[in-house]
Amino acid sequence: MRLPSDREIRALHEKYAPTPEAFELVYTHCQIVCEIAEQFLSRDTLDLDAELVRAGSLLHDIGVYLLYTPSGELDHAGYIRHGVLGHELLRDLGFPEFLCRFCSCHTGVGLTRDDVRAQSLPIPEADYPPETGEEELVLYADKFHSKTTPPTFVTPATYTQKIRRFGDSKAQRFTQLRAHYGDPDLTPLATAYGHTVV
Q1: Which value, to the nearest 10 degrees, does the dihedral of the CA atoms of residues 18, 23, 24, 26 take?
Q2: Which secondary structure element, helix H or strand E, spans residue 146, and what is its range?
C-alpha cells in the first residue's frame, strides 16, 4: 500500500479535529515532530525509510481528537488513551498495521504490559513498545515537543526529569535513545514556531 501524502494526512486531521484550535494544536505538534525526526534522518547515520517516518510523525497523534468533549474541552484524565484510539481509528479507515502502530507505540519511552497494570492505565493490557527503527525514531522525536498550554519545546534534561518519575529504568531508556540518536537542535524550531524551550 502506498503511504498517504502530506495533503491526505492534513485532510484527515481537518476531518477529525473538533475545532480549529484542536487542529492547530495537534497538527502543528505532528509537523514539529516530523521536523525533529527529519533532523535526525539528515545526519546520514540512520538506515530508515524517511517517507514512512514522515507519515508516522504526521499521523501519530490523530487519536487526540477523539478525546475532546462535545463542549470542546480535552479529556486530560483519559489522555493516555490517545495512542490506542488513534491506532483503532486508522485501522478502521483501512490503514495498514505498520502505520497504525505509530499511534499506539509512541507514548513515553515505550509502555509495557507491566506499566499498564502497575499504573492502572485505561487501555488494554498489552505491550506497546516500538518494534521498528521508524517507530522508535518517531517516539523519540515526540519527546521534544509538548502540547501544553502554551506548547513548548522540551530539552533532553527536562524530559529526563519528567520520565524519571516513572522509574529509573525509564530514564535509562531515554538515555539510551539519546546515545543512539543524539539531541535535536531546538533553537531554530523554537524561533520558527514561537514556542519557548523548557
Answers
A1: 120
A2: strand 145-146
Please state, in angstroms and rounded to a whole number, the distance separating the CA atoms of residues 67 and 89: 12
Q: Does the pTM exceed 0.90?
A: yes
pLDDT at 71 over 90: no
* Selection from 91, 105, 152 nearest residue 133 by Cα: 105
3-class state of residue 49 by DSSP: coil
- Nearest residue to 148 (alpha-carbon basis) of 85, 195, 82: 195
d(CA 75, CA 82): 10
Please report how many Cα atoms fall inside a 13 Å half-sphere around the Cα of residue 159, on the Cβ side. Answer: 26
Look up residue 14 and give its three cell numbers: 481537518
Closest CA to 32 of 8, 52, 54, 50: 54
Contact 50/22 with Cβ under 8 angstroms? Answer: no
Instruction: Please answer whether residues 100 and 56 qualify as being in contact, where contact means their C-beta atoms are separated by less than 8 angstroms.
Output: no
